[in-house]
Hints:
The chain is an alpha+beta fold. The chain is built from 1 helix and 4 strands, in the order αββββ. A hairpin with a 2-residue loop joins strand 3 and strand 4.
Amino acid sequence: MAVPKRKTSKSRRDKRRSHQAVKSPNVVEDKKSGEYRLSHHVDMKTGFYKGRQVFEPKK
């Protein structure tokens, strides 16, 4: 049975868990409509992406 030779310090333990933090989504305000949306995503209310009409929104 494998047994650790030395105690793992708090610093070393916390470094290992550093990538497990909860990250908030990157929400930005749309320049044209003022609605909030995820960056690099189509604005679902207007149908625009990067200044171009991608699709016609449902009315």
